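User: My collaborator sent over this chain with a note saying "see what the structure looks like." That's all I know about it. Can you take a look?
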Amino acid sequence: MRILVTGAAGFIGFHSCQRLLARGDEVVGIDNLNDYYDPALKQARLDQLTSNQRFRFKRLDLADRAGMTSLFADGGFERVLHLGAQAGVRYSLENPHAYVDANLVGFVNVLEGCRSHKVAHLVYASSSSVYGLNTRMPFSVRHPVDHPISLYAATKKANELMAHTYSHLYALPTTGLRFFTVYGPWGRPDMALFLFTKAILAGEPITVFNNGEMRRDFTYIDDIVEGVIRTLDQTAIGEPGWNPAKPDPATSRAPYRLYNIGNSQPVELKRFIAAVEASTGKRAVLDLQPMQPGDVPETSADVAELSAAVGFAPSTTVEDGVGRFVRWYRDHYRV
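Assistant: Without extra context I'll predict from the sequence alone. Here is the result:
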């Protein structure tokens, strides 16, 4: 197939492109290569991809309406994997307009491109952050998500609503994936594992929020990508028995689906840090801080729907996954 991947120079986008290319697909990747984090890391990922003749890259901002229109007009894409976004909960407190431009304006441009050119399936990145003030665990796509606590989360919730509108009005098959704390080689420098590894190897303190009393559904990148590709291959369809008197948030009469994609085994942050210590051979110095605005103390994914739909079955332990990351980090940065 010919597949468009937005955010191709990003963490999940890069790994997804690799998997698609490995199985023989033709991939067009776009990214704006912004400086939210080190552009050199994004370029290093792209260098890995561009060695494959079936990969073509175009530097393009999602919010560039004319550029996106031209991309779709010339693309001939059968499916679209939309992973490009302005990420980060904490950064959304500092630069809200970046989230409006990339996550709202950019998403409309993607939807319009898919609608206008009869794309067979749009799979897009949502986030576990949409659960906001919800405390019922594990988080289920059957639960309402009406109380986000960061602008980033609000934009992801908006994406789900926007996608449903296009599925309903134009019969565009869309599937949203709520990612839960993805980690692994080539990961983002603003994420905990990257920050912890860098600081511990340098003998510097690591900042741990909520005094370390956090639990996260850490999910290894290979498990994530397997679920993403399986979902992309299975086109969303309408649910004939959907009841508007008791509406299920995860489905619709329209060709629309929502899934959690996570490990479904939350891990205490202290176990995660211990895995980094074991892999680096160094002890961490903890700088304990209170909870940050926009953060939640725990995440836990109910992935029953995704498992039933595509056979999603994550299998990587935190210890194995962290070890693979640390080995990559030391090799890439030569430390």
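A starting point for your reply to your collaborator: The mean pLDDT is 95.
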